[in-house]
Amino acid sequence: MYHAHIYFDLPKLALAKQVHQLIASNRSDIRKIFPLVTRRVGPHDKPMFEVHFNDDQNGFIDWLDQNRQGLSVLIHPVTGDELSDHTTGTQWLGQALPIHIQAIV
């Protein structure tokens, strides 16, 4: 399984809602899409929403890259090692953002 964290600044909340709705209405291959979180949470540097998906067999990552509307996206595997998942096994779409590892360890 993988997580995609789609980040946004509060002035771009409406854009983030559009991307959220686009994913929810066009991608039946995702496992779950979570509501927007309008504050920093855990190791994440900005407000975000999270999408869980099994794998990239249906091209979700490329689709997301084409439809993220300039928002930064962190994609990582879920291995049970949260520190490693957020630091070594990551892929970024757009600008990479800081990950606050002190919130993990």
What is the fold's blueprint, element by element?
Layout: E1 2-7, H1 13-26, E2 30-33, E3 48-53, H2 60-67, E4 73-77, H3 82-87, E5 91-93
Antiparallel strand pairs: 1-3, 1-4, 2-3, 4-5
Can you give a write-up of this model?
27% of the residues lie in helices and 23% in strands. With 105 residues, it is of the alpha+beta class. It has a five-stranded antiparallel β-sheet with strand order 2-3-1-4-5, covered by helices on one side. 23% of the residues are buried. The mean pLDDT is 92.
**Mean pLDDT across all residues, rounded?**
92
Walk across the major sheet and give the strand order.
2-3-1-4-5
Q: Indicate the structural class.
A: alpha+beta
- What is the overall shape? globular
Q: Tell me roughly what share of residues is in helical segments.
A: 25-40%
Residue share in β-strands:
15-25%
Q: Tell me which oligomeric state these chains represent.
A: single chain
Radius of gyration, in angstroms, nearest whole number: 13 Å
Number of beta strands: 5
> How many alpha or pi helices?
3
Order of helices and strands: EHEEHEHE
Biggest sheet architecture: 5 strands, antiparallel
**Which residue ranges are poorly predicted, with pLDDT under 50 across at least 5 consecutive positions?**
none
- Whole-Å distance between the termini? 22 Å
Concise summary:
With 105 residues, this protein is α+β, with helices and mostly antiparallel strands.
